[in-house]
Design a protein that fits this description.
380 residues; alpha/beta; 7-stranded parallel beta sheet; 4-stranded mixed beta sheet; 14% strand; globular
Amino acid sequence: MALNRAVAVLGSTGSIGRQTLDVAQRLGMRVASLAAGRSVRETEAQARQFCPDVAALYDEEAARDLKVRLADTSVRVLGGAEGVDEAARLGDIAVNGIVGIRGLSPTLAALDAGHPAALANKETLVCAGEIVRRRAAERGVRILPVDSEHSAVFQCLQGNERALSRVILTCSGGAFYGKSRAETYGMTRREALRHPNWRMGEKITVDCATLMNKGLECIEAMRLFGVGIDRVEVLIHRESVVHSMIELADGAVLAQLGVPDMRLPIQYALTWPERAPCPAEPLRLAGRTLSFALPDTEAFPCLTLARRAAARSDAACAILNGANEQAVARFLREEIVFGQIAEAVEYALETVPECAPESVEDVYALDRAARETADAFLSR
């Protein structure tokens, strides 16, 4: 199946980006642009393979190097945040796999250009959900979920939007499932990156271990599907076969199942409302046991912190995310231990003043304050 669409791949050298390129190639889609951080060699290889109109790198020095390397091609090389935003404006749809709040500006750039935004970057909706939703509505374009859980809900909702009663997000439990808070407190980077089912980037894998990823997904579900946090629930499902469920007004529960392969939700976002042949191994249910349990929020307090922020305000959600990004970055640099991540986030939520964000600049100000507060707490 070939679709006459051109795709902007943001975060092209990350896990989502590489899988998006694989899906686009299988579907016969043209790659309009690539954007990454500072991975010169991999971006060069991608640019030579896919021949995009633009390749952009956040790191301007790396972009200058890439420009020299691609001088014998027709690829236009751009640098800095403005270059990445320009890459996001190209094509017919933008897949945003950029990690963190850095993905907010390219999302808005794609929407302003009148293109749907397929989001794997959950921080965009966590930190600036109402701003992004309003921008999409003004431009008359869709926000399409790429996270496996939100894609599952989106698929189950087709034709059922008005009857939605409850969203049930499933969760693998991460690397430390079944352990107590005391047992995980001193865990290290290497231990946290051992996800049982999915192969993902480092930041999201750590968030899975703390259950912050599921907390961020609860907030994202609120924004995407227009429900309160009290109508978003979480179940531990270690097998990662049921990607999420919805409950309808008549009590029916619909679930979307599949093998744990991110190419499936990426492909659905790229082809929606159509479907294409599956790029992954088919799911075989014979002989499988599927289990479900409630999350242990005492052992993994980040989920509770996220839900508390969601119930409080948009500002609290931005503070939560900024503090978490800063703490996880320090954890990945092996400057702190696992248990300090939740402590830093809780301190920021208790300390940073809240003001309702009315603009992107307000969101960035909250993010900076949260990072500085978390950093100061961890440096004490």
